Each structure stands twice: as structure tokens, then as C-alpha cells.
């Protein structure tokens, strides 16, 4: 009998430990969050330290009167919590930030999973504007304009100086759910690049128009028959990126604003689009365009661009120096330079001065005021200096030319924003809101300066499309049309170029199919919104 | 009841686990019948009945997805199912010990690679400019083939890479079953003058049959569960027409477009079909051989 009781007891103990193990995860989380809220001492004396840290735009530091902890989801590959910037923010504002960093590759999926769970971090970025509006209207993220009174920097930039921002980036009630980024872009940051050393060696001049571009590639193919002169790593996005040269590109691609008749159009069914496809088809058929341009990964593309397999590509401007640094030991001649745009307009895209597409947002919870104030501080000159330049006298000093120098990083061949991110937690995507133009990001290398001068002096920029404000219903229509029409468009693009038999007949079939899938309905949504936009801005 | 209470107590944690982690989440399926809004929660959202199902069945994607899912699942089953069995039997017949061991190790190794690595290896092997397979083909005097963008190759690539990745691992179960066959049967057969081929046919295969049947029923149930990761990693715009399946569609609709209710409806439909197939396979198997899963 006693044996029986003993075994019962044993079984019960086993069962209960199992259950306890299951439950402990939840318990831990619960107690931790309680600790955050109540852990701080309530009788700390708060001193106004605004004057110590430069121009805060009128904000009072510290931002909170008791220690506050915020969660912030950012795009980064490193742990930021113990970096200099995180500590300095805590010192200046009284806000401790728990950074949740995810690499660029996983971030997009991660943020959507987080949103789907309904448990938002206090500050995050990465949702598309239409998605933010949708969850903003569901009261999940804060409408920033409701708090303008406590946000002097936001008020100055986006209410007083650029009152159109709420009209363009907000929802139909002019509620703005995303914190824009101010004046970040350089003038030129993507475009065609070519191997100047190879071009020079073979006496091929740089192209100035599309025909010359084609002739240059042809000559290269003759001289290097094993090569595919033009390579690409952006897969299906190549059409979006090149579209500017044919005058049909835009931030809302595949919708774009046609300045000539002031209407919005669906790019994929325009005659210019066919011209672009025909051009790429010609390059492909003659072996001038990499046969794998639709499947190349960044790695395979890099391999081609650095080993004389390909000489021309479209990418981010920093690649010119990155590639050089990668291969300079074996090939000191390697010289990738910024080339003229391709396509009949000869233009590249214009980058907006105020960009709300990063989707910086603040969750609607008890921490929202602290989070908003923190963003406002980072928008102020003082905060912007901290995030993009550093702390003078601590991690950097200005040299005699007024350029920042980072003594601890003296050993690095190149102090770029990636180095600043790795070492100090500066320049983290989703954290910079108003970059200080004294930062290294605006130190152009010689090649970048050349690119800048080349495009600026000839003013080769496509006009910026108006930033429209779509209603919830319009967003839903676009979202509904989007999946099938963009999928079919990508499919058609690829087939049109790769398949020798594709020609005018297939183009016309595509036009009919696109119409059936709602191509003109897609453009109409924008045209309706444009009417409201014009009426508002009269 | 009273007699078994010790056993019941032992079973308790398992039951709790199932209730919390297996049956609890089923409740979330209700969002397929609602216009789900994350921030109002499952209870707060509006009921809409079968709206999402109706939309899905009437959309132009439905037939294509159905066809693709079925085709990929069926082909994987058709070609992928017999191979582990053949592998296990041939390994069993192999008398050279070191060869047997090394073949086994080589074949089950890919099962430990992540799907991302498997897919990038596939892409590398098949690349027209640098890929091993195309280089071989050129050396043998054939034309290069750009496999990854040709719709007619997608299914072959999918199924072949699946077999490569899983066959060795699946064979372990059959190897275990083969090892369980009593050696006296073989000895008796040998005494009766049975050839190796005959004993394979008359002893090994029939003894394996119950395992094969059970595995087959299980695989049928999984036939439609095509992992979206693999298709996502392997497909390109030109192969959408044969590659887009329920799970990739659910991924795009649900995650990329935040259309949770619609995605849940599609996912539920997929699960329902899988259940019907499992039940019918079990039924047929019971009718035919008297053995089933339950």
C-alpha cells in the first residue's frame, strides 16, 4: 500500500514540475514588465539639463520626470543596448531604450508578425504608409498631430514650415501616423555605374544616350565574348528602377504621374513601358544583359561585377568604393564610376526632401508621450547631432576643415555610417530623423562627388510626383488590385524579355489582361485622390 | 477509471499541453468568419459569415492555386514516397559494411541543412553560368538550360530537391523495420532454396508492408502541406504559374498585405482538404488491407 502511495506522490510531483516549467515563461514576463513600470524611484529630483546639450528646439531635458523604459524595434545587425548612443540618450532624456534589432533580411517579415500579434513595440518603423494608416485608424498607433503642443521640433518642421505634410502623408482627416525624416537624402544615391578602367582601356567613351549605351555594351561583348556586360542584382525591381529613364517611374510605381497631361497612369501598360521592355529584350537576346538578371543574388552579382564578367550595373552609389575596396589588392586599376542615366528622358529619380516612407510610428499605449518626446528630441539639432555626428569631445572632434574625426576609429580604412553604427550605435535605420549634414554621410568620396556634380550640373532629374493622400477605401482598392496585377506584370515582364517568341501580339494580350485585372481602376484611384489634392492646395 | 488513475495522472500533462497548444489555437480560426481587426481582438471583430471563402472561391487565383498545390503534392508523393523504401532495401542488401555506412551518412546528411541552404545550393547547381549541372551538360555537348526561370522545370526541381533532402532521413524508418524482421525467416527460406531476389520479394517486402501503409497514409495527409519557404525561395516571376500554391498565397495575403481573415479562410480550406485526403486514404487502406491508422 505504502508503495502505491509513494508512486502516486512521485507521479504528482512529476506532473506538477512539468506544468510549472510550462508556466514559468509567462510568469517571468509578467514580473519583468511590472518591474519596468514601478521599478524607478519616485522621488528623484529632476533637473532641467536642456542647456548642456545644445539646441533642443525648445524641449526640456530630461524628457520624463521618472525613469522610463521604452522598447524600440530597429533595423540593425548588432546589439545596441550597451552602445554609447543608447547610454547617452538615457543620460540626456531619462529614457532607457530597450532596442530590439533585427537584420535587414528578416525585419520586414518580423515587423508584420509583431503587428499581427497585436503587441507593438513602443517605437518601430517598416510598415508601408497605407498599412500604418490602416492600423492608425484602428487606434493602434498614435496620430502625431494630436500631440503637436508638446513637440516643438515636429511643430516647427511639419506644421509651421511644411504644412502640406499632414495633407499629403496623413489620412483623410489629416491625421499623421508616421514621423517623417527631414532632409536626409543626398541628391544622387542610385544609378547606372560602369567600369571606367575597362571602358578607357578599350577606347569606349562613356555613353550619353541610350543608343550609345547599347553600342558600348556591344563593343564590350565583342572584346570579352565570355562576359555579359550588364548585370543586375535587383531581380524584378530592375523595371521599377529603370522606369525613370523612360519617364514612367515614381515613388508610387507602378502608378506614376504624367506631368504632360497631369494624370496618373499605370506604368505597366504604357507605350514607354513597352519601349523599355523591348530595349531590355534586345540586350538580353544579344547577350549584353546577364542571362541570370532575374535570379542573381547580391553575392553572384558581386562576383560578376568584380571579376570582369560584367561591367555595367544599376545600384547604390556607395558600391563604387565598396567594390574598389574589395578588389583593390588584386586589381588596383579597378575603377567603377557613376554613368549617365539610360533611357530617352536621360533622367534619374528625384529624392524627396521629406520622406515619410520609413514608417516611423509610435504605439498607442501608456508610453506614447515619452516616445513622441524622444522622437522630437532626436529631430532637434541637439538630438540629430547626437545620432548622426556623435558626442563632441567624447567620440569625435572636428578637424581644422570642420570635418568630424573619430580618434577611436583611426585604424579603419574608411569611417562610414556602418562603422559608426557598429561602434557607437549611430545611424541606425529607424533612428535618424533629421541628419546633421556635417556627418560623414555627407562627406562625398571623390567618385561620389563626381556623380553628384554630373547629375546636378545637367539637372537630370525626373519631376517628383505629388504625394497623395489616399482614403481607407482607396487604399483597400489598391491593395486588392495589387497582388494579382503586380504578380502578372512581373510574370509578363520576365516572359517578354526571356521568350524569343514574345512580341506585339503578347503585348496586346497583356494590355487586355491588365485591363481586366484593373489597370485603369488602379490609376483612377490616384486620379480621384489627385482631384482632392488639387482642391486642398488651391 | 479507478484502476487506471495513476496512468490518467501521468497522462494529464500531455492533455494540458494539447488543450493549450493544439486545441486552443484552433479557436483563432474564427477570424476566417470575421473581418478581423488585430487591435479589437478576436471577440471585438465583426462576423461576416462565409464572405472570405466566397471571395476566394470566386477569385481567379483559386483554380490555379488548387491545381498547383495538388500537382506539387501529388508529384512529391508519387516520386518521393517509393525512394526511401528502395534505398532502405538496397542498403539492407548491401553486404560491404563501410560502403553501406557511408551511403547512409551521405544520404541523410542533407536532412540537417536548413531549407534556405538547400535552396541556394539548388540555385547554384543549376545556374547557367556557374552551375555544375550546366557545365556538365555543356561538356557532354548539350545546350545550357536556364532551369530556374523555366516553368516546365519548376516541378521537377522542386520534387528532385525534396527527394535529395529527405530520402535518406525517411529511409531510417524502413531500415529499422527491415532490421526487425526475424532472421529465422530468411534462414528457413534459404534452406528451402530461395534466391536472394525471391526472399526479398516474399519476406522483406511483405514484412515492410504495414510500415509502408502507415507512412503512406501519413504522407497523404501532408500532401497539400507544401512549405511556403521552399516555394518562395525557388520561384521567380516566370514560374509563378506553376509555383504559386496555397501556402505562398496565404503568406502574401496574410503577412505581406495584412489580410488576416482572408488568409485564415484560405488556410482553413487547405487544412480541410488535407483532412479529407487523410481520412479517405485511411478508409481505402482499411478496406484493402484491413490496416489503417485507427
From TrEMBL, chain A:
<dbReference type="InterPro" id="IPR006059">
    <property type="entry name" value="SBP"/>
</dbReference>
<dbReference type="Pfam" id="PF01547">
    <property type="entry name" value="SBP_bac_1"/>
</dbReference>
<keyword id="KW-1003">Cell membrane</keyword>
<feature type="compositionally biased region" description="Low complexity">
    <location>
        <begin position="30"/>
        <end position="43"/>
    </location>
</feature>
<feature type="signal peptide">
    <location>
        <begin position="1"/>
        <end position="20"/>
    </location>
</feature>
<keyword id="KW-0564">Palmitate</keyword>
<feature type="region of interest" description="Disordered">
    <location>
        <begin position="29"/>
        <end position="53"/>
    </location>
</feature>
<keyword id="KW-0449">Lipoprotein</keyword>
<keyword id="KW-0732">Signal</keyword>
<protein>
    <submittedName>
        <fullName>Extracellular solute-binding protein</fullName>
    </submittedName>
</protein>
<feature type="compositionally biased region" description="Polar residues">
    <location>
        <begin position="44"/>
        <end position="53"/>
    </location>
</feature>
<keyword id="KW-0472">Membrane</keyword>
<dbReference type="InterPro" id="IPR050490">
    <property type="entry name" value="Bact_solute-bd_prot1"/>
</dbReference>
Amino acid at each position: 500500500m505504502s508503495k502505491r502511495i509513494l508512486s502516486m506522490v512521485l507521479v504528482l510531483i512529476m506532473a506538477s514540475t512539468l506544468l510549472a516549467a510550462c508556466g514559468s515563461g509567462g510568469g517571468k514576463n509578467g514580473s519583468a514588465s511590472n518591474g519596468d513600470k514601478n521599478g524607478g524611484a519616485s522621488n528623484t529630483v529632476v533637473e532641467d539639463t536642456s542647456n548642456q546639450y545644445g539646441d533642443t528646439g525648445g524641449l526640456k531635458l530630461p524628457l520624463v520626470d521618472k525613469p522610463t523604459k521604452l522598447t524600440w524595434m530597429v533595423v540593425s545587425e548588432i546589439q545596441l543596448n550597451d552602445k554609447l548612443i543608447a547610454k547617452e540618450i538615457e543620460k540626456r532624456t531619462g529614457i532607457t531604450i530597450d532596442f530590439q534589432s533585427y537584420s535587414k533580411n528578416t525585419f520586414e517579415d518580423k515587423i508584420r508578425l509583431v503587428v499581427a500579434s497585436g503587441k507593438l513595440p513602443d517605437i518601430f518603423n517598416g510598415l508601408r504608409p497605407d498599412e500604418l494608416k490602416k492600423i492608425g485608424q484602428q487606434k493602434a498607433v498614435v496620430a502625431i498631430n494630436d500631440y503637436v503642443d508638446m513637440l516643438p521640433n515636429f511643430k516647427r518642421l511639419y506644421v509651421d514650415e511644411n504644412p502640406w505634410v499632414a495633407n499629403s502623408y496623413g489620412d483623410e482627416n489629416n491625421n499623421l501616423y508616421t514621423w517623417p525624416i527631414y532632409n536626409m537624402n543626398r541628391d544622387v544615391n542610385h544609378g547606372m555605374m560602369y567600369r571606367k578602367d575597362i571602358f578607357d582601356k578599350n577606347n569606349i567613351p562613356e555613353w550619353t544616350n541610350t543608343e550609345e549605351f547599347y553600342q558600348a555594351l556591344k563593343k564590350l561583348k565583342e572584346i570579352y565574348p565570355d562576359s555579359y556586360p550588364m548585370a543586375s542584382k535587383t531581380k524584378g525591381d530592375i523595371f521599377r528602377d529603370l522606369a525613370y529613364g523612360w519617364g514612367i517611374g515614381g515613388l508610387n510605381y507602378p502608378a506614376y504621374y504624367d506631368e504632360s497631361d497631369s494624370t496618373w497612369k499605370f506604368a505597366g501598360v504604357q507605350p514607354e513601358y513597352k519601349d523599355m521592355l523591348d530595349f531590355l529584350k534586345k540586350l538580353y537576346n544579344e547577350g549584353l544583359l546577364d542571362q541570370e538578371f532575374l535570379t542573381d543574388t547580391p553575392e553572384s552579382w558581386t562576383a560578376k561585377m568584380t571579376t570582369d564578367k560584367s561591367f555595367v550595373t544599376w545600384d547604390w552609389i556607395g558600391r563604387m568604393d565598396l567594390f574598389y575596396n574589395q578588389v583593390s589588392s588584386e586589381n588596383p586599376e579597378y575603377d567603377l564610376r557613376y554613368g549617365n542615366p539610360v533611357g530617352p528622358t536621360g533622367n534619374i529619380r528625384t529624392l524627396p526632401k521629406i520622406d515619410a516612407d520609413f514608417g516611423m510610428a509610435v504605439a498607442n499605449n501608456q508610453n506614447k508621450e515619452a516616445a513622441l518626446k524622444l522622437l522630437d528630441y532626436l529631430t532637434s539639432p541637439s538630438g540629430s547631432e547626437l545620432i548622426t555626428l556623435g558626442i563632441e569631445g567624447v567620440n569625435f572632434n572636428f578637424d581644422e576643415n570642420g570635418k568630424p574625426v573619430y580618434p577611436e576609429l583611426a585604424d579603419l580604412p574608411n569611417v562610414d555610417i556602418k562603422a559608426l553604427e557598429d561602434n557607437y550605435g549611430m545611424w541606425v535605420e529607424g533612428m535618424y530623423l533629421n541628419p546633421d549634414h556635417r556627418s560623414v554621410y555627407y562627406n562625398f568620396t571623390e567618385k561620389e562627388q563626381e556623380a553628384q556634380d554630373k547629375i546636378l550640373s545637367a539637372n537630370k532629374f525626373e519631376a517628383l510626383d505629388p504625394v497623395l493622400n489616399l482614403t481607407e477605401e482607396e487604399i483597400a482598392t489598391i491593395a486588392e488590385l495589387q497582388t494579382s496585377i503586380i504578380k502578372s506584370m512581373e510574370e509578363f515582364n520576365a516572359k517578354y524579355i526571356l521568350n524569343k517568341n514574345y512580341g506585339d501580339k503578347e503585348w496586346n494580350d497583356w494590355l487586355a489582361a491588365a485591363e481586366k485585372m484593373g489597370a485603369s481602376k488602379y490609376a483612377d484611384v490616384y486620379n480621384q485622390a489627385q482631384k482632392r489634392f488639387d482642391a486642398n492646395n488651391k | 477509471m479507478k484502476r487506471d488513475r495513476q496512468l490518467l495522472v501521468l497522462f494529464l500533462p500531455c492533455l494540458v499541453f494539447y488543450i493549450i497548444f493544439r486545441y486552443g489555437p484552433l479557436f483563432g480560426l474564427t477570424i476566417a468568419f470575421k473581418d478581423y481587426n488585430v487591435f479589437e481582438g478576436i471577440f471585438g471583430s465583426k462576423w461576416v459569415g462565409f464572405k472570405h471563402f466566397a471571395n476566394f472561391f470566386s477569385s481567379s487565383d483559386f483554380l490555379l492555386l488548387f491545381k498547383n498545390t495538388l500537382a506539387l503534392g501529388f508529384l512529391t508523393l508519387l516520386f518521393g514516397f517509393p525512394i526511401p523504401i528502395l534505398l532502405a532495401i538496397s542498403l539492407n542488401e548491401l553486404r560491404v559494411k563501410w560502403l553501406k555506412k557511408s551511403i547512409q551518412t551521405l544520404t541523410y546528411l542533407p536532412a540537417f541543412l536548413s531549407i534556405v541552404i538547400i535552396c541556394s545550393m539548388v540555385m547554384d547547381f543549376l545556374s547557367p553560368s556557374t552551375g555544375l549541372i550546366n557545365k556538365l551538360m555543356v561538356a557532354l555537348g548539350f545546350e545550357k538550360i536556364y532551369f530556374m526561370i523555366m516553368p516546365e522545370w519548376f516541378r521537377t526541381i522542386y520534387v528532385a530537391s525534396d527527394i535529395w533532402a529527405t530520402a535518406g532521413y525517411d529511409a531510417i524508418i524502413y531500415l529499422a523495420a527491415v532490421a526487425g524482421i526475424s532472421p529465422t525467416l530468411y534462414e528457413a527460406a534459404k534452406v528451402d532454396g530461395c534466391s536472394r531476389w525471391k526472399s526479398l520479394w516474399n519476406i522483406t517486402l511483405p514484412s515492410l508492408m504495414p510500415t509502408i501503409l502507415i507512412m503512406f497514409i501519413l504522407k497523404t495527409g501532408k500532401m497539400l502541406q507544401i512549405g511556403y519557404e521552399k516555394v518562395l525561395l525557388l520561384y521567380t516571376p516566370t514560374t509563378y504559374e506553376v509555383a504559386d500554391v496555397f501556402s505562398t498565397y496565404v503568406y502574401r495575403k496574410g503577412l505581406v498585405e495584412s489580410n488576416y481573415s482572408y488568409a485564415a479562410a484560405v488556410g482553413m480550406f487547405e487544412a480541410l482538404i488535407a483532412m479529407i485526403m487523410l481520412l479517405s486514404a485511411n478508409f481505402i487502406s482499411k478496406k484493402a488491407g484491413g490496416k489503417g491508422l485507427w
